[in-house]
């Protein structure tokens, strides 16, 4: 590979990063919804409150990304993009692009200061909120596609005795979304990072759920709970391989017989960009980089049955679920 090849490769990567940033900005500014119908740059600019050249450049970036196309004198968004970003899932899509771009910027900024580190230690409320909103988006999928396969769990969550353990609760978004959908459910939310936990406490209070949700600073490795919960949310993608087997044993002990754990893994083999960047994120989050099949093995060793790996999602996550046997 020549110097010229290297420069070309770096320029291509830079163009891809600028395109991703422009698409994120367009989503932040509600550009896709304004491109539901063919729209000229002037109308787009006045609707979005942007200078005309910038509005046109954002629309062109959507075209370059394959998310919009040019029309006579304007642009129109891909119908699926408009439906996704302007529909009920829009806030989750926005949170995912926001969480990604802000974390990339923070990672690069830290590197320029000689302070690139691993571990989830963000203090920026926008990053913490976006990450939380993004993970709360998974509750819709859990309710629709996973809960029906978890024997008796829906009934337990609504029984008045139902209890949920949110490990690594962040700003409490997952807990709040689950409690909103199950009005009799009680929850314990564990979050050791002060900045995130304070936001979780505020969010729980604002939601009027302080009587049902208990936020604690306990780390999973220090949790002492025995048959207290029906469902545990475990963010394996934030727990390293040294911690995860022990955390699974702790969760197994904390579950009532017949209860379930839901976990996610970012571990992936391969040298393609998707696998490599999934591992990079897992490492930045001090999380697991081992393949989901190995995590499934740890689940079985911890005593879980009905271990199921779900299909890898576009963001690289492999959700998994497992059950504590009903009869110990
Ligand atoms: C980013 S969160 C996931 C977002 C969260 N579900 C929400 O709704 O905001 C994962 C969390 O795991 C926490 N965490 C990391 N190590 C942990 C441990 N050993 N025990 C408990 N939580 C931990 C991190 O502080 C981080 O906030």
CATH 2nd-level architecture of the largest domain: 3-Layer(aba) Sandwich
- Assigned CATH class of the largest domain: Alpha Beta
Bound molecules: S-adenosylmethionine
Q: Can you tell me the residue ranges where pLDDT is under 50 for at least 5 consecutive residues?
A: none
Q: What's the structural blueprint in terms of helices and strands?
A:
Elements: H1 3-28, H2 31-34, H3 41-48, H4 52-64, E1 68-71, E2 74-77, H5 79-86, H6 90-112, H7 125-146, H8 153-157, E3 163-167, H9 173-181, E4 186-190, H10 194-206, E5 213-216, E6 229-234, H11 244-254, E7 255-265, H12 273-284, H13 292-301, E8 305-309, E9 318-323
Parallel strand pairs: 3-4, 3-6, 4-5, 6-7
Antiparallel strand pairs: 1-2, 7-9, 8-9
S-adenosylmethionine binds next to helix 7 and helix 9.
Q: Can you summarize this structure?
A:
By secondary structure, this protein is an alpha/beta fold. The chain is built from 13 helices and 9 strands.
If you had to describe this structure to a student in words, what would you say it looks like?
This protein is α/β, with parallel strands linked by helices and 328 residues long. It folds into two domains: 84 residues, Arc Repressor Mutant, subunit A; 190 residues, Rossmann fold (3-Layer(aba) Sandwich), CATH 3.40.50.150. The chain has a seven-stranded mixed β-sheet with strand order 5-4-3-6-7-9-8, with helices on both faces. Strands 1-2 form a two-stranded antiparallel ribbon. A hairpin with a 2-residue loop joins strand 1 and strand 2. The longest helix is centred in the first third of the chain and has 26 residues. 40% of the residues are buried. The mean pLDDT is 95. The structure holds S-adenosylmethionine. S-adenosylmethionine binds next to helix 7 and helix 9. The site of S-adenosylmethionine has 25 residues, from helix 7 and helix 9.
């Amino acid at each position: 590979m020549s110097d010229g090849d290297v420069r070309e490769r770096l320029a291509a990567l830079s163009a891809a990063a600028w395109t991703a940033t422009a698409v994120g900005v367009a989503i932040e500014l509600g550009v896709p919804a304004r491109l539901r119908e063919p729209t000229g740059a002037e109308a787009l600019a006045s609707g979005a409150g942007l200078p005309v050249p910038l509005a046109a450049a954002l629309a062109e970036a959507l075209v370059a990304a394959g998310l919009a196309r040019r029309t006579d004198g304007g642009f129109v968004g891909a119908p699926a993009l408009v439906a996704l970003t302007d529909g009920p899932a829009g806030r989750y899509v926005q949170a995912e692009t926001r969480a990604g771009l802000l974390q990339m910027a923070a990672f690069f900024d830290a590197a320029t200061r000689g302070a690139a580190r691993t571990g989830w230690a963000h203090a920026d409320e926008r990053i913490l909120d976006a990450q939380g909103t993004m993970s709360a988006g998974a509750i819709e999928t859990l309710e629709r596609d996973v809960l029906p396969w978890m024997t008796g769990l829906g009934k337990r969550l609504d029984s008045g005795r139902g209890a949920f353990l949110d490990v690594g609760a962040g700003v409490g978004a997952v807990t709040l979304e689950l409690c909103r959908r199950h009005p009799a459910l009680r929850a314990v939310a564990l979050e050791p990072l002060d900045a995130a936990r304070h936001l979780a406490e505020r969010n729980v209070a604002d939601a009027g759920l302080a009587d049902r949700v208990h936020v604690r600073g306990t780390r999973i490795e220090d949790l002492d709970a025995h048959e207290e919960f029906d469902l545990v949310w475990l963010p394996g993608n934030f727990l390293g391989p040294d911690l995860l087997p022990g955390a699974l044993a702790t969760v197994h002990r904390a579950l009532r017989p017949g209860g379930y754990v839901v976990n996610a893994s970012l571990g992936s083999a391969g040298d393609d960009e998707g696998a490599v960047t999934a591992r990079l994120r897992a490492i930045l989050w001090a999380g697991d980089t081992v393949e989901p099949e190995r995590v499934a093995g740890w689940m079985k060793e911890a005593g879980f049955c009905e271990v199921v790996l779900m299909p890898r999602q576009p963001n690289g996550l492999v959700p998994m679920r497992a059950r504590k046997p009903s009869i110990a």
